């Protein structure tokens, strides 16, 4: 494979065609198949940011059920689809840790 070098002048905006990179048959098996892992270069960065946010929420707050609700009142029924999610949203009240 031949490598090419380009000199990009200062203050020039460079647009990268990630769609073409993700479907280049020279590099990908089943290049025309949609595979999100190879199309989203920021996915790992996004996952790390989500983990940091979640850790901060867990670390900085005590989570309690709303007044009048008990543990046995929580509905853990799941709904199946492309992804599995809870049928009923979980409602919790954050209490700042001191």
From TrEMBL:
Q: Where in the cell is it found?
A: Membrane
Any GO MF annotation of the entry? iron ion binding
The name on file for this protein is Uncharacterized protein
How does it sit in the bilayer?
Single-pass membrane protein
- Kindly list the GO CC terms recorded for this protein: membrane
**What Gene3D superfamilies does the record tag this protein with?**
Cytochrome P450
Recorded source organism is Eleusine coracana subsp. coracana
* Highest taxon above the source species: Eukaryota
Q: Which UniProt keywords apply?
A: Membrane, Oxidoreductase, Transmembrane, Transmembrane helix
């Amino acid at each position: 494979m031949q490598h090419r070098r380009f000199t990009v002048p200062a203050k020039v905006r460079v647009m990268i065609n990630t769609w073409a990179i993700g479907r280049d048959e020279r590099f990908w098996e089943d290049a025309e198949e949609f595979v999100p892992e190879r199309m989203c270069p920021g996915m790992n960065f996004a996952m790390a940011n989500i983990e940091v946010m979640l850790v901060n929420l867990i670390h900085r707050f005590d989570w309690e059920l709303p007044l009048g609700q008990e543990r046995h009142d929580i509905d853990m029924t799941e709904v199946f689809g492309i992804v599995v999610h809870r049928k009923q949203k979980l409602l919790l009240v954050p209490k700042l840790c001191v």
